[in-house]
Amino acid sequence: MVGAACAYYAARAGLAVTVVDRGPVAGGTTGAGEGNLLVSDKEPGPELDLALRSAQLWEELAAEELPGGGTLGQVAEYEAKGGLVVAADPARLAALTAFAAGQTAAGVTARPVDGDGLRALEPHLARDQAGGVYYPQDAQVQPALAAAHLLRQARLAGAALRLGENVVGIDTDKEGRVAGVRTDRGRIAAPAVINAAGTWGGELAALAGVFLPVMPRRGFVLVTAPLPPLVRHKVYAADYVADVASDSADLQTSAVVEGTPSGPVLIGASRERVGYDRTLSVPVLRRLAAQAVALFPRLAEVPAMRAYRGFRPYMPDHLPAIGEDPRRPGLFHACGHEGAGIGLAPATGFFIAQQLVGEKPDFDLAPFRPDRFEADAAAGGGVPYGGSETGPDISPEIGPESRLDGGADR
Amino acid sequence: MTDVNDVNDLNDGVRDRYDLAVIGAGPAGFAAAVTAADAGLAVVILDAGRAAGGQFYRQPAAALRAARPDRLHHGWRAYTAWTGRLAAHVAAGTINHLTDHHVWTVERLDADAADGRGLAGAGSATAETAASPGTLFAVHAVIGAGGATGRAVQASAVLLATGAYERQLPFPGWTLPGVVTAGGAQAQLKDSLVVPGRRVVVAGTGPLLLSVAASLALAGAKVPAVVEAADPLRYARHAKALALNPGKLIEGAGYAATLVRHGIPVRPRHVVVAAHGERRVEAVSIARTDRAGRPVPGRERMITCDALAVGYGLDAQLEIALELGCGTRREPDGGWVLTVDAQQRTGVPGVWAAGETTGVGGAQLALIEGELAAHSIAATLPAGGFAVRAAGASRPGRAMSQTAQPSAGDGGETGSADRVGPVAAAGRSVGSAARPGRKVAKLVRRRARLRAFADVLQQVHTLPERWSDNLRADTAVCRCEEVPYAAVRDAVTDLGATDSRSVKLLTRAGMGWCQGRMCGTAVQCLVGELTGGEAKAAPAARPLACPVPLGVLAEGAFAPAAPASGTSPAPAAAAPPHAERPADPPD
Amino acid sequence: MTGTPRDLVAARPGPEFTVRVDGRPVPALPGQTLAAVLWAAGITAWRTSRVTGEPRGAFCGIGACFDCLITVNGVRDQRACLVRPEPGDEVRTRD
């Protein structure tokens, strides 16, 4: 998704763009996510600012007319449905309300909701919830369709798409500047290379000789049978915010429940750092199911039809790497967005395109500097490649891991 | 409403831990369970059906009181012999047969799961030393189709005998009511004594069609034609394998005689190109195909009917196996099956597979594979099985040599005599236990013969090469999500899909209730055609093998280290006592 | 030459009973699947597809395709080819 957005804005800016991916479109984490476009789960700071900017860009993208008819938003199932964060007890509600107040000061629209208000917004929600906060800016998109159609628009603007092609090396000139990429099919000369390899962004950076600690943070999603409308908004427990922000490698789960235009209800979200272990975790599925049923008791009777898993591109400070790498001029990073890549993709692509054409981005990208972990690398700390964090699936390729199954279901 | 006639009581003697869990009670499953129990193992069978038999030996419901169920079956005597032994074990408590249990996943519990070590791959440690804790699995099931109760049982070894479902190809009109799978028509006839219509055209490819047409005719349906895509002349190329299997030929001849007696014409090298009707099928168009498998223009003709029973071979049910990490291979007809070695071992320690999951070849072959798998399991598990070993007892002899399992790395001593089919991944030994008994050697030879015959069938009954020529832009490829052919085409040619999974993400084909079981073959073929054969093919992963109510899934979610509902973990040192076992194997 | 499946296997089923399908009585034999009961009554379609509204009934007959989904005693999405009705069951075809 991030790569598609980079290609889209760069092609629109008049650049000659080639997109290389070892798999199909949306073959990696994009195809294994729920398509969250959230501001509600972000604390005030650079990521929230980026999310707010990206939300505006998503609105513009959604309204874009497609040559075949309809808008990008329609074909990609863009829904400005709003998010509802629910607190189970007064203590959690107080913390949530204080958190929301801080977000409001940072420009987020957040509306406290009492128990009756919860029932008005979500009639099937469990009765015992203390209250919550409603976030009208939260939205949803079917991520694979969004990426595919954005890439299609990029191609109409002149971009070339090369699928099933592995990048195996980064070419540099005598001064150490990027000169292009080597793939399993040949060379592509280019003065700029964008690393939009998501969870596998660390491996691509390594090909260019720079350190970027992107690690997989595994998540499972449960998908129910198609249902008549039961869940109207994106509903999640207040604990989710703490889980997202956690630095622990251990398992965290908090219910994130939402209906989809196609009928199934999606149930997330688990987070754990176990490398690229693809084993279906029965304990994780049990916890997701239990938490979802606690929020929506009627779901107890509903069958889970399938489950899927993916690997979020996690960085130690939960912020993505965006922008040119001072250690390797010509190499731009656009990866490491963890679970927020779909939402943050347009802003990421937009600012990368500004840098590419030599404009100064109208946004402070300093917190996302790709070389901010250089001290860790020098100290031998940080995050190892090929060590315990990375499993046997790793190969020196970029692009999505194409063995992922399942996928976004909306 | 009940889902079964004999729902198991929840306290019906289900123990905490078994030596062997058999998933599926078809021919491979019941043969393995009986053989393993004969060898002294504590066995549990989990099966979705309400009686042993699987799809092939599907039985009329007991309440229908059929005096002559054998008239709908081939190989009846083998079935009654095996199920008689099964019943004796169930009565003795040496096999627990859990009917109407729909297994949704098998979970590895042993500590070695993560790094791939375990029982069969435990280096030089022999089974007898029992120094390694061995493998341990939890088998998770939902009781009843759509049931509200779950259960998990634990076992040291797992045999996957999950069988197959019928492969389908889309054509205009295939979603009309009255169009059913050939196997489904057969299943409902055997089970509930009904036929899908009065005039039933049988179509597709494969040996099942003759059997289905014969059954339908015997049951009183008019079968206007059997429409077989394959060219029977192709059998001539495989005379040797055919001659070695006179029994299989007689079986086929029996069906053919029934067809002749009922005046049913067989139309080889013909395909159904469309089904017609408003609220249900009223007629089908069939067409002769040319050498390339393409329907010959102007040679179509219409056959009136009120049902069409159609199928293009079988696809193995691999969901559970794929989640466990078992390796796969492709069969001559394009289907995916599990890779096993000569002992029916998958590449995953502690996991064996038998029957259609390891290669579609029919009930006789499945029985043999199940039996062979059980011998291997009995030779592999610590002597006397888990519980007896824990209690410090030793076991008397068993049917098979007690020689230790060949360990990883001794592939050099592979016996060629019992080597069949593809070799397991990872280069593990494919020899059987070092001194297989005469009985095992005989089984191995029969397996090789039947496997050769099955290969011939698959080479003859391939999918018609140009089947997709029949598709119209609006023909539904995916029945559940009603995804038309045009959407699949556009996803590949316009949106950047290059494999089945990305087609699914961009069109929803395969995302619905059946999880791609009905459209998976078609989508994979179409992606191959549309990408010029460059599509990367792989069997579809389905992490949940069947739907699981969230309430069932949620059970025990936050209990500390609770392995499963209704059972408690059994520490190795404090295993529950097993029921008595026969001191000596009956044979 | 034409008989019935019951003749073929010499079945002597228990007494016939009635299930109500959208309020209409339909005869059933003990032990039969609901799909079989409906087929025997000449009913081949009992579901409307979600997208195009086409009629659907049993297809695979062994529980794999989920095309035969039906509501039994208020429980949605039951597979008619697997469930076995009992006397007095209320079946609804449109949910």
Characterization of this structure:
The complex is a heterotrimer of chains A (410), B (587) and C (95). Helix content of chain A is 29%, strand content 23%. With 410 residues, chain A is α+β, with helices and mostly antiparallel strands. An eight-stranded mixed beta sheet of chain A has the order 4-5-3-13-14-15-12-16. The relative contact order of chain B is 0.15. In chain B, strands 1, 2, 3, 4, 5, 6 and 19 form a seven-stranded mixed beta sheet that branches. A five-stranded parallel beta sheet of chain B has the order 8-15-9-10-11. In chain B, helix 1 crosses helix 2, helix 3 crosses helix 4 (208-218) and helix 8 crosses helix 10. Chain B is 27% helix and 19% strand. By secondary structure, chain C is of the alpha+beta class. Chain C has a single domain, classed as Roll (Ubiquitin-like (UB roll)), CATH 3.10.20. In chain C, the strands form two sheets. Chain C has a five-stranded mixed beta sheet with strand order 2-1-7-5-6, covered by helices on one side. Chain C has a two-stranded antiparallel sheet with strand order 3-4. The longest helix of chain C is centred in the middle third of the chain and has 7 residues, at 34-40. The relative contact order of chain C is 0.22. Chains in contact: A-B, A-C, B-C. Chains B and C meet through strand 8 and helix 3 of B and helix 1, helix 2, strand 4 and strand 6 of C.
List keywords for this structure.
heterotrimer, B: 587 residues, alpha/beta, FAD/NAD(P)-binding domain, 2 domains, five-stranded parallel β-sheet, 14 helices, 22 strands, disordered C terminus, C: 95 residues, alpha+beta, Ubiquitin-like (UB roll), five-stranded mixed β-sheet, two-stranded antiparallel ribbon, 7 strands, oxidoreductase (chain B), oxidoreductase activity (chain B), FAD/NAD-bd_sf (chain B), NAD(P)/FAD-dependent oxidoreductase (chain B), Opine_Oxase_asu/HCN_bsu (chain B)
